[in-house]
Amino acid sequence: xxxxxxxxxxxxxxxxxxxxxxxxxxxxxxxxxxxxxxxxxxxxxxxxxxxxxxxxxxxxxxxxxxxxxxxxxxxxxxxxxxxxxxxxxxxxxxxxxxxxxxxxxxxxxxxxxxxxxxxxxxxxxxxxxxxxxxxxxxxxxxxxxxxxxxxxxxxxxxxxxxxxxxxxxxxxxxxxxxxxxxxxxxxxxxxxxxxxxxxxxxxxxxxxxxxxxxxxxxxxxxxxxxxxxxxxxxxxxxxxxxxxxxxxxxxxxxxxxxxxxxxxxxxxxxxxxxxxxxxxxxxxxxxxxxxxxxxxxxxxxxxxxxxxxxxxxxxxxxxxxxxxxxxxxxxxxxxxxxxxxxxxxxxxxxxxxxxxxxxxxxxxxxxxxxxxxxxxxxxxxxxxxxxxxxxxxxxxxxxxxxxxxxxxxxxxxxxxxxxxxxxxxxxxxxxxxxxxxxxxxxxxxxxxxxxxxxxxxxxxxxxxxxxxxxxxxxxxxxxxxxxxxxxxxxxxxxxxxxxxxxxxxxxxxxxxxxxxxxxxxxxxxxxxxxxxxxxxxxxxxxxxxxxxxxxxxxxxxxxxxxxxxxxxxxxxxxxxxxxxxxxxxxxxxxxxxxxxxxxxxxxxxxxxxxxxxxxxxxxxxxxxxxxxxxxxxxxxxxxxxxxxxxxxxxxxxxxxxxxxxxxxxxxxxxxxxxxxxxxxxxxxxxxxxxxxxxxxxxxxxxxxxxxxxxxxxxxxxxxxxxxxxxxxxxxxxxxxxxxxxxxxxxxxxxxxxxxxxxxxxxxxxxxxxxxxxxxxxxxxxxxxxxxxxxxxxxxxxxxxxxxxxxxxxxxxxxxxxxxxxxxxxxxxxxxxxxx
Length: 835
Hints:
By secondary structure, the protein is α/β, with parallel strands linked by helices. It is built from 29 helices and 19 strands. Strands 1, 4, 5, 6, 12 and 13 form a six-stranded parallel sheet that branches. Strands 7-11-10-14-8-9 form a six-stranded mixed sheet, sandwiched between helices. Strands 15-16-17-18-19 form a five-stranded antiparallel sheet. Strand 15 (about 530-535) and strand 16 form a beta hairpin. Helix 1 (about 40-50) packs parallel to helix 3 (about 90-105). The model is unreliable at about 820-835 (pLDDT under 50).
């Protein structure tokens, strides 16, 4: 008798909230994510990237297989996160797309990627128009990235109601995934023996059979399939340490079947960040479990779409309205003080949640009639235009914008009308972003996630004031008053109104602030005549530099424009640098009627700098530029840090040289003290620690790597008991190995590049700490595949394999995934012939 069809599906929900500064469209430094630049970068390093090239190792911790987990599991990625990955982590982004392509070959033509509600709003709390846009943007984003229509869609927090399911079905979504506790009752789809409807059976999270799909029949006559994931096994992955062992993980999944002869699916769903971020090396446990399941005779891997084709639902279900997977109170976590929180501050309250949502709902509804009125002469249908605007969001180019306006505008728009039309669309985009669910999920209104959604509201208010004039300007006062009801748990933070005034208002950027940033940055950066700053374009019209001693004056004219709204203006600017952090800049809009005044300023400013009369220069600034000045504090956060680092560089270099000289002058004394067990003066120990680490850094950064110096200073560190800066040197070593491999990949036949990479690997292996050369290992693996298709010289083969061994790859046991796929295809073909 043939074995019953048994399938396993592991779903990962990969998501981080959008973190871009609403005025710059880029993520700024987030210190809480240190040592990484921001949380997206950190979690990419810990989770998203490792899952694209996960390791399976032998008992000696040597790599024997590298697996793209995305090709073997079911997954969804937040569209806003994919947008960030595409721009900032292109290799990881390609791994995700390749995983979906490979999964189509593996799972009967069905890709494993699911779409996701665009920016993770709680659908039951949204109005119908916003729900529709979220779904349409999600589908458009998915099709653009994955090159196919989505079959399933992930609902943010699995928050669901019947209207949401109706809208999914209206947009040809075949299925979604819910928690078992969201099912109210079930019954077989077939009629009873008497021809009537079969009675419903009430269910809960413990009694629901999650091993089959269910169909939900909707009021409109449509239907959608729902998979209710295995709650107990999903909890074990996320919270109970199941990822500590790949063997236990696989066994727990395979052990989920019953003796029933009907086809079954054991499936789990968790945050994808469980695999590497929440659980270190969780992606490796996942890979190992996947290979064990693939080898097992008891089950085979699948994804939801493939299983749905093979095993259509035979039972129907009814959902519990307004429920989610992470709130025991339905959807209260995103609109009330329901009691759900992170648990770290039991004395805190989340009473701020309701006033915050009320304020955002009020703002959304307040701009609605204004939007429709302003849009009436511009768009055929402003809401259809909003749905179509995703094409511009996905491709910020002049062509995409022109195509969008040509298809949606009521007539051919002039320049001013285009700006207004685009500002209306951006206002609506940010009005959607301000509902991103993470703003309510955590405990405190002053947390970065909540401040982020208030910032989106701040951008809405700025655009409303620009488009609607006085009526738009009035909105801010009323909005701030509503935020005043949202009280912080942190006394110094006050309330939502205080947070808005202190943090959001100071974030606001206009074209003048961009020009000031450009002016100050120009002191330290050589810009071309055409430059880009974040989402702004700068065209330099005139430019002059005058120096006198340490003082330097830079002034000119430039055309500053937004790449988002196409708004632009010409400005005049001047900036004087007195050395170090002492910078003063001034900016004003160019006024042709004051041209002679500006020319007079130029002459007098030149004379003041040449004569070193800087007080006179500052008086000129005050007179011509109406008294408003900018300083280094006016720079956008990342650029401010970059420039401060440049300013500090020469000072640090002087200190470094002095400490190295002190150490070298007294090294023999330090050796003597150490060898004889005598106490070392703290000042000398400090100089030695700094000098040895600096010399090691220089040796690692030299090109090629200075193996002799690395060896010498490593020995000195050991002999003099100097603590090595493992964190800093490890980072430098990792980057060094990566750069060597990048050069080799660009010209892998080049023996000199191969020998350089091998020297680097040998030298780094002598360092007394563990390295994370994950990216370099991936590049070696990528080089291996094309090298196999060419006949390489014997010496190249020998050295390349040694390079792999030096990087902890067991080259003799390594299984290349494409070899496995080829073998599986041969086996499948043979089985077909036998049938």
